[in-house]
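Thread: Newbie trying to understand structure tokens

Hi all, I'm a second-year student working on a class project, and my supervisor (Dr. K.) asked me to get a predicted structure for one chain before our next meeting. I've only ever worked with sequences, so writing a 3D structure as a token string is new to me. If someone could post the tokens and maybe explain what I'm looking at, I'd be very grateful. Here's the chain:
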Amino acid sequence: MADINLLRDTVIGATATAFLPIVRLLLLNVFPEAGPEYFQSSGPITSQYDFIIVGGGAAGCVLAGRLTEVPGWRVLLLEAGGPPPLETNVPAFLPISYIPGYSEDWGYSTVPQKYSSQNFINHAARQPQGRVLGGGSTVNGMMYVRGNRRDFDRWAALGNPGWDYLSVLPYFIKAEDYRGEVGDNEAFRGRGGPIGVTPSPVSPLTRAFLQGGQELGYPIIDYNGPEQLGFPVTQFSIKDGVRSSTAMEYLRPAASRPNLHILHSTTVHKIVFRNKRAIGVTFEHKGKLLTVGARREVILSAGPVESPKLLMLSGVGPKEHLLQHKLKVVADVPGVGQNVHDHVEVLGLSWLGVKGTSAMGLIESFSPVSLKQYKATRQGPMAAAPLNFQNAWVKVNQDGDPLWPDIQLFFNGATIAYDKGTFNPSFWGFDKKMYKSYFGEILGREGFCIRPMIVLPKSRGTITLRSADVHEHPNIDPQLLSHPDDVVTLVKGVKLSLALGNTSAFVNNFGAKFYDKPLPGCTGEIYGSDAYWVCYVRHMTTTFYHLAGGCKMAPASDPYSVVDHRLRVRGVAGLRVVGAAIMPFVTNGNTNAPTIMIAEKASDMIKQDWSG
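---
Reply by user tm_fold:
Sure, no problem. This is what the structure looks like when written as tokens:
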């Protein structure tokens, strides 16, 4: 069955991506100023740079833009992927990047999960990660979420001075160009920064989502303001109708600087050390293996998977694991690849009877009329995320801080079955037989879904090497739902989702009716009981693509500490890690905005450390 599923995904991926050249040709007239030539560096590679940035993703592009503000510093940026393809500029086209086999994605999956994802191929969860300049900011869902102020206060309380909320808030503000009205929250928002942040249009379905939240007693909020608990209009990293990625907003303006050299489509093999100091990197480019030196620092911003992987391939990591793969040990740092965790969401909760919410909306977004409007004005359906994407933050457990949400509700104006099973099983990695057995009765039906997601997960896993071959993916094992408290919280999140979907805002205004077919595999439990929903959660959960923690920022007393509070790797010199990998606890929501904040703060730290 796994082979059949794999063949299906391969065929779907190949068919879908075959249309991309046509899409890109059409977009050449829409974005004549956004071609790959804007990310080309002139001149040959030199033997040494002041800084080498490994990874040109969300964090790496910020670092390249900020460090080259110092004219005397020469910076080399190395990225495995290529320049952003034209379709990534168009907000409505964001689903394209989730097609299996998309060339700008690493194509990761977790190892088979014991406690979750039982209805997915091999019991594994897809783990999309951007393999392109701008990384996730180029291919993600564009939801701009800073996180909860308590997230950062917890980082600081762990023993990381300077990472409390009041210390990181200026970097969020610095990065942001907010395009909405905020009223009393103006002091919390940024104007004129690189990343455009735009509230989503309010549709009848969006309005029902907000009204439903109010019926349940939640306030309408700006979740990027002082508090996060409540129902907001979702904000997206969109500027004037175009995706606002770090590649376009930080790197492209810096690309013409003579002190920046951008080298994309490059595979970094390892960091080079001399006497435990990082002095350069070895990388593969156009079939040649090259080594280039770093006078000051190597900065590893290769993402939550590749950063711990490259540390281990370079000899920095758990000693026994490195020796197992016959790697020379430069520094025994047991925490590399540990503390790995992710947000976990529950799929499949669907409401039917809602007209004009899904397929028709997509057809409108991709119509010639919309394309013409978008080309002329950068407005219309193509200028916004599709399918009424919305978020809310709620609290389902009674313990702890009452204003620290434990569930994020993701609202989508379509069910997983709206496309008749053409793409959606592959998008998520569902086992085809399971998908048809559960969703077969509602294929093509209009509706919406609510996906509860745990945002304060207690489960922890690992990233380990599969081999010493740099071209082979590591083993990604977040051990989703291995902590029983996570299951309890998600079951409560399911119940709150049911209450929201059944509020009068949806039932009276849209005739919404919950799809209450018992899930095959859980029919041995009484439908609607806690035991049934536990079974449902175990079968229908997957990652939310917010992997974090494999290079944990913590004091030296923490056995899993990989970097200190200035992001310097322990046991060696001249090496930092910057990005979501350093998060000791993943933030409360989507991780792109805090990754940008981390890179902004790291840039200032580096400037301070080398100012003398």
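A couple of things are worth pointing out once you decode it. The chain has a mean pLDDT of 94. DSSP finds 18 helices and 25 strands in the chain. Feel free to ask follow-ups in this thread.
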